[in-house]
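Data card: per-record layout.
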Amino acid sequence: MVPDIASPTNRPAATREERDLSLRWSGRVSLTPRILAVNIFALVMLAGGFFYLDSYRARIVDSRVEQASREARLIAQAVAMTPPDDRTALVRRVASEADIRIRLYDRAGRVTLDTRALGLNNFVLRDPDKDPWNQSAARFLDAVIDTVAGADRDQQFRERAPTKGLDWPDLAAALRTGESSATVWRAPDRTPVITAAAPYGPEGAVFTSSNARDITQTVRVERFRLGLVLAFTAGLSIFLSLFLARTIVRPLRRLARAAVRVRLGRAREVVVPRLPERRDEIGHLARSLSDMSLALRARIDATEAFAADLAHEIKNPLASLRSAVDSLMAVRDPALQSQLLAVVRDDVLRLDRLISDISEASRLDAQLSRAKFDPVDLGAMLAAMVEQRTARGLERDIRLRFDAPVGPTPMVMGEGARLERVFANLIDNAVSFSPDGGTVALSLIASGDMLEARVEDEGPGVPEEAREAIFRRFHTDRPEGEEFGKHSGLGLAIARTIVEGHQGTIGVETREDRIQGARFVVRLPFVQAG
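The structure for this 530-residue chain is written out next.
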């Protein structure tokens, strides 16, 4: 089975243009995932906002730590200035207003006053096992983002015994240095717990603790809003990416499948989509591929028609040659043998002329594509051709005339030998159709940016409906009385191929002077002066 896309093993080295157009890192990846990847990359950058929230939370926590340290110092100063009997009321009032738990420790680390013992339960840690599922999901998301972001994990908060106050690091530091100190802990439900301590003189130190659930709640709210934006943006981006991929990849795949079918030799069955509604590069590509497939189909049809015509044209002289050879074996009359040998000689010459013309016609396209064009003076060329033919003499007293233009003749870019073959074929055609004693006139006229070369005869002319057919290969309309097989029927076809290879045109027109005959006009772009 032939694969959809062939890859020759002896593929030549890539050209510079191919290397410039290649994508080394993505050459094997389809367009759809590439488009998705580009858009998802932007979403990943947006998702980085989740990690920015971690730094946002860290700044809030640092601010709360400083605030807790200041509060501890202020409370310690107030306790130091308050008589011992009035300290209980002061501590209870401050703890209630600040929504924190306050404990007073002596220097041995034993609790001397605790607002919880006074009945103020404003510091209660939640049990995560008793929270609803949405809180558990939120904590799981917190853990995932902290892990991915590489956030520092605070120590688990655990209560100390009333006589083990020195196990609190910030309390021990405050009693040892005489300065306030604060620590951040992690509650069982992953919310931050902030403790702070400050000495209130030689007696001991104030120790405060608070559960900053509002920080976690603020971060979760912002994360939820960012998640909504990200989800909406992701959905819209994926939809637009798929839409873009659909508008690009699908028509390209259709064009690729059609091109593969053309490569597999199914050109006549293939209809390459032209995508007329698209005015972008893909539409231009589709129409170019469609035009290319039509040109290829026309070339295939022309090749098959040429092969059929060739077989027919060769078969006729071969049949005549076979008949003459077979008759030679049975004929004993010298006169008849001479006639048969003449037929054989004519048929051989006819085959030789036919094969030579066919060989030239089949190679013209390739040769013209590689030919190097130089400036050619058509005026000098036509004048020389007329002079040479006149010097050799023309049959049936036909006259050949060149009406040279006044002034210098514009030059055309071309291959001189090929252009000479064009006008030789046109002159031969005009002479063969001209009556005895007729005139074949050649002339040059500059028209716009084209140089017109005209070959006019006084023959029967060309009917309008046959003016295109005469340029087909093996066209057989010949003048009356001409010997059969003298022409191959390829002269005008060769002339048209050469002229079109020079970016020109050739056609038949009616003579403006109302004289009977045909006018063949060759139009070639001339070289602009300067």
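Known properties of this structure: The first strand starts at residue 101 and ends at 106. Residues 1-15, 17-27 have pLDDT under 50 and may be disordered.

See the next section for split statistics.
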